[in-house]
Amino acid sequence: MLEVRNGGFETTVQDYPGRIGMLSLGFAPAGPMDDYAFRFANVLVGNPPGAAGLEITAGGLVVAFHDERAFAVCGADMAARLNGQPVVLWRSYRARPGDVLEFDYLQGAGFRTYLAVSGGIDVPPVLGSRSTYLPGSVGGLDGRKLQAGDRLPLGEPRVDLGQVIDRRVRADLIPGYAGYNEVWEVEATRGPQADPDYMTREDMDAFFSHHWKLDAASNRTGYRLDIYKWQWARTSGGAGGGHPSNIIDNGYPVGAVNVCGDQPIILCIDGPTLGGFICNAVVAKAAMWKLGQMVPGWSYIHFKEVSLEEAIELLARQDASISEENLERS
Amino acid sequence: MTEHTAAQPSGVILATFPEHNGRPGVVYRNAGDSFLLVEFGDMVFDLTMSFRVLGLDDAIKRHRPEGLIEVIPALRSVLINYDSRVLPAKRLIEFVQAQYEELPPFHDLVVPSRIVELPIAFDDKWTREAIARYVQYQRADAPNIINGTNSEYAAMYNGLRDKEEFFEYIMATDWWNAALGFFPGLPFAYPLDPRRAVVIPKYNPTRHWTPAGTIGIAGPCLAIYPVESAGGYQIFAHTVPIYDPQQRNPAFRESPVLLRPGDRLRFRPRVTDEELEAMIQAVYDGTYQYVIDETATFDVGEYLRFLDSVREEAEAFRRHQAEAATRVPIP
């Protein structure tokens, strides 16, 4: 059992890939915003990469261990300490009963960090997943973020603790994060509604070259970017509505860039599943993790166009890299 | 199968198939490494497309190839979630097109379609608060907001006498729920009576906040917001919960989602804010009884004959509406 002494700014239980196959009922998948750090944290402690762990946004979480477990913290630096001793990111540790793990707030680049505990968080799956989906108030612990006094059940570890502690992720696989006011390069494919029929070629050239500022009003449902005066290839949305960004409602891909009037919004993993605005690009699945480490109100995004084949290749390479073979003894 | 692989320089369109023997054409669009968007016919409001789409959805599910994760139907499209490493896009397109071409004629269909009656309060206090917040924090000069409501704008845009006439239109037709989505259990419902088919453009920019239970319209589509959320529809009414993750009412016993694709929504009775507030309370204490005809069916052939019989009237309304819209600014 893991006892929550302070829930911090926003801490939720997540698993990977989340609640899959329920988009047609309106359930976004949820899951970790940075699935790369999340999966590596699990691999470090000997869990399956998708096992349920904690997503800590901005910081402030304090937890106490009630039994002996391996744990790992991957993602943004929040100056984590175990009983006051610094915890190094991307590395596995042993926790004993009574040990207290504390997170401060953000120390620099990055926005979310992930805590994996051997055995995983054993809250009951809801509609096939343990992920917390805040807009629908389902999953995780009672469909909400964690607060002081919560007690999280833990699962049975798969391997001996001795085998999985004191390991670290190979240094070249630990990603660097763009800092405040810096630009993240995010791979994305063009379409489904882009040039030539919905936007002009110039609109799409601007989309793939502009440095988009991430608005402070951004969260797991959507990342709002700057207002832009698009040319549009159509003068109206026809039967979809008066504005040329309007269409007759259709399903939205997870990670799509949804252009609502003048404003592009990246639909994140808690985002809407269906709607009536065009999507001019889709973030490559292998690049979705970057969204999790951007800082709303501070980060900039440059969309780098990739082909469908390149996006699939990136994903294959990413999945292959998250493995036991890429860990070292520390 | 006569495929016309598009020579689009942008690479967005992966394949197109022209209209054939009355069967609408199909366009396959690149929607990233995990999704494929399939569109049928033209970007026009044609409710009968929903019958084909739901038929195709069913056929795909029955013949599900390995690597296909989910089909997300909408009025004139399906979005397919798939594992592109197991099922390459090209093979998926061939599979979907084959299923589409084997669909039986839809005129003879009699499909199960429940009738769900929902109470409605127009220009209620919750809707007014959402609009007031939008004016205060997001956009003060939005042309779609008149006297703190969207309903006056909706009436003007459709050439209706006043907002009361707009409300009458909402209650005078059944609404066909073609799809669920956006947030859990949210219906995308379209008017079955084309003489009452209002059309309204969306918010620009979209609202940051909409309370659960709000009813809105954008384009020809009506939605009920199941949870507190952002939103882009013009909002004008409120109803009882259609989503309850805590499943506190017998209507939610089987699923936290009340509605299904293929349901018909009927708004009645018209109630005051206070009456609706009491009903919402009763939903949560388990005593409210949703009025749902579970055994109703929908006869597609009969509906097509009805459409024929009102064609001129519907056409006249559309012309009137289009003419009125030219005099009204869009957001």
UniProtKB/TrEMBL annotation, chain A:
Keyword field contains Nucleotide-binding: yes
Pfam families: CT_A_B
Endpoints of the signal sequence: none
Presence of keyword ATP-binding: yes
A molecular function (GO) term: hydrolase activity
InterPro entries membership: CT_A_B, Cyclophilin-like_dom_sf, PxpC
Keywords of the record: ATP-binding, Hydrolase, Nucleotide-binding
Superkingdom field: Bacteria
Domain Carboxyltransferase, residue spans: 24-321
Protein known as: Biotin-dependent carboxyltransferase family protein
Higher taxonomy: Bacteria, Pseudomonadati, Thermomicrobiota, Thermomicrobia, Thermomicrobiales
From TrEMBL, chain B:
PANTHER family for this protein: 5-OXOPROLINASE SUBUNIT B (PTHR34698)
Keyword Ribosomal protein: no
Carboxyltransferase domain segment(s): 26-259
InterPro entries: CT_C_D, Cyclophilin-like_dom_sf, PxpB
Cited SMART domains: AHS1
Alphabetic keyword roster: ATP-binding, Hydrolase, Nucleotide-binding
Protein name: Carboxyltransferase domain-containing protein
GO molecular function terms attached to this record: ATP binding; hydrolase activity
